[in-house]
Amino acid sequence: MNGLVVSSLLPVVILIAVGWLAGRMRWIRGDSVEDLSNLVFLLLAPPLLFRSMSTVRIEQLSLKPVAAYFVAAGLIFAATLVWRGFNRTGVVLALANTYSNTVMIGIALVGLAYGPQGMVVLLTLISLHSLVLLTSATVFLELALAQEDAPRIEPGAAGRRPMARTVLRALRNAIVHPVQAPILLGLLFAQTGLEIPAAVDKPIALLGQAFSPVALMLVGITLALTPVGQHWRAALLHASIKNLVHPALVAAFGLAFGLRGLPLTVMVVAASLPIGANVFLFAQRYRTSEGLITASVVVSTVMALVSLSIVMALAGRL
């Protein structure tokens, strides 16, 4: 394993381990996790994301690496629906197989490993990640739910869900979001040619610097407090698809698109990130496979401590 992989992953592993210890020792209790999550997503993430994009010109952005990511994700999503069937469970598992933890783990890891240039590539993906995957999942889930409800609804009876309203709400929530909004606002600010005043930039920078350690410790705390239970075998399968199959497909499509170097490397690493916690929120909301999704998130995150090091070492050769 090369020095870049070790130096990038070691702080990540240590901070997650510190959080895990805090959770196991009950220094941070389960009822405090939501408050910590709000601290990370509502207070620390927006300044970091806004500042990272505040100097990026639109002509610097490249969508071809992002296209490789989403083509691979779309293929896995469709294959999962064929495998598990077009129903709520199938859609949620398809989302689990494709939705990366790009914020809590991805930003910290890519920032450490690939610096500001890598962050621009990752944030380009993040600006579309939830918008594309969560909105698509919402539409498919609502269609699956309507299909499941159809036999219980008499022809012409009230009860059909307003699909257009659901899609518009999903789009709005994906854009007006503590992750999406500062990325878009930072990019818009950059196009003005202005600079953030030093007196304002300093506290923004300090808040952004606090994001990575707190977010990674929160991952460890969550791991310590979340039981895997009887679902670990199925969870291992879904974690393997997310952590290994997804990045392999992104690498294949990226090479087919003529991509090389840092943009492709960052996309492959992003695809190898563990399952994002938003998938569990969908499982809760639609009341399907909650235990399996929880176990899959945990197993995928633990597996990533090893699989990420392998993927990063291989991706560095692309």
From TrEMBL:
<keyword id="KW-1003">Cell membrane</keyword>
<protein>
    <submittedName>
        <fullName>AEC family transporter</fullName>
    </submittedName>
</protein>
<comment type="similarity">
    <text>Belongs to the auxin efflux carrier (TC 2.A.69) family.</text>
</comment>
<dbReference type="InterPro" id="IPR004776">
    <property type="entry name" value="Mem_transp_PIN-like"/>
</dbReference>
<dbReference type="InterPro" id="IPR038770">
    <property type="entry name" value="Na+/solute_symporter_sf"/>
</dbReference>
<keyword id="KW-0812">Transmembrane</keyword>
<feature type="transmembrane region" description="Helical">
    <location>
        <begin position="6"/>
        <end position="23"/>
    </location>
</feature>
<feature type="transmembrane region" description="Helical">
    <location>
        <begin position="35"/>
        <end position="54"/>
    </location>
</feature>
<feature type="transmembrane region" description="Helical">
    <location>
        <begin position="120"/>
        <end position="145"/>
    </location>
</feature>
<dbReference type="Pfam" id="PF03547">
    <property type="entry name" value="Mem_trans"/>
</dbReference>
<keyword id="KW-1133">Transmembrane helix</keyword>
<feature type="transmembrane region" description="Helical">
    <location>
        <begin position="170"/>
        <end position="190"/>
    </location>
</feature>
<feature type="transmembrane region" description="Helical">
    <location>
        <begin position="265"/>
        <end position="283"/>
    </location>
</feature>
<feature type="transmembrane region" description="Helical">
    <location>
        <begin position="210"/>
        <end position="229"/>
    </location>
</feature>
<feature type="transmembrane region" description="Helical">
    <location>
        <begin position="66"/>
        <end position="83"/>
    </location>
</feature>
<feature type="transmembrane region" description="Helical">
    <location>
        <begin position="90"/>
        <end position="114"/>
    </location>
</feature>
<keyword id="KW-0472">Membrane</keyword>
<feature type="transmembrane region" description="Helical">
    <location>
        <begin position="241"/>
        <end position="259"/>
    </location>
</feature>
<feature type="transmembrane region" description="Helical">
    <location>
        <begin position="295"/>
        <end position="315"/>
    </location>
</feature>
<keyword id="KW-0813">Transport</keyword>
